[in-house]
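thought: fold this chain, then report.
action: predict
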Amino acid sequence: MIYVLLITGLIMLLAGGEGLVRGSVSLSERMGLSKAFVGIAVIGFGTSMPEMVVSIEAALIDRPGIAVGNIIGSNIANVFLILGTAALIKTQVTTSKILWRDGLFLVFATILVTASLHFMDLGVTAGIAMLVLFIAFLWHVYRTEKDIGPDEPEDLPHMRAGRRRQLITSALLSLAGVVALAYGASLFVDSAAKIAANWGVPPAIIGLSVVAIGTSLPELVAGGMAAWRGQTELVVGNIIGSNIFNLMLVLGTTALFTPISLSDVPVKIDLWVMVGATALLIFGLSTRLRLDRWEAVLFLSLYAGYCVRLATA
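observation:
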């Protein structure tokens, strides 16, 4: 039965990824928003829902190791595995705005979380501060990406009604994709985590590896679909957005439910791996605003090495 759930989850992931990419591209066109914003906000939010659910569930049962390990492991997987896979399919191109606005905020969030975990416990106050910073960042992105088009002709109400219907259809398709991705990932994660636990794998390692990869499956599928369709702005925006969501929204929300102390969570080395992955991502994009296939091979090789290190830890 557990393998049936795994297969069902994978099918839902593929269908959800296709629906989310198609709906999001259409949504950006209908609302006058750039694909970068949709990649950060819509797809980034949607594909980060599994991390949110898993981390909150872990916090509620007082298992901060799985919660924090899931977030850190997901960010590492997003850069090395998901973006590496997407760049292997097609060279990933971005813009200077995404790099210096969103990329630098990701660097700030990564350093902030790493330093905070080393020098203090994350509780309710820290969680609220992280959520406020996240909301401010999202509002800034929206304001700088919104493209106000010309007013619709007053004498063509049927055209306005048609555009509204198209907007609703695109939104519903995106929502259906998010739901399918989240539920499909949940089926996969639950099954994989049970198998790992039966083998006696420690909770933090499960969070860093099995759960992290499982909750990153939506990013992997959505990124692969977008890369295949040549929507590279969606891919890069999704990865940067998802990592920001994980650090500020997911970790901030988790801290509201349970205090997070690095002494209780054995992920010190993994934190620095996440910092290194973020630095490589920004450095790679800053050279020519693109990630080529040789960089994809490097990212995937580094992730393979990281997985070997987890397996032998």
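thought: worth noting. The first helix runs from residue 2 to 31.
final: tokens above.
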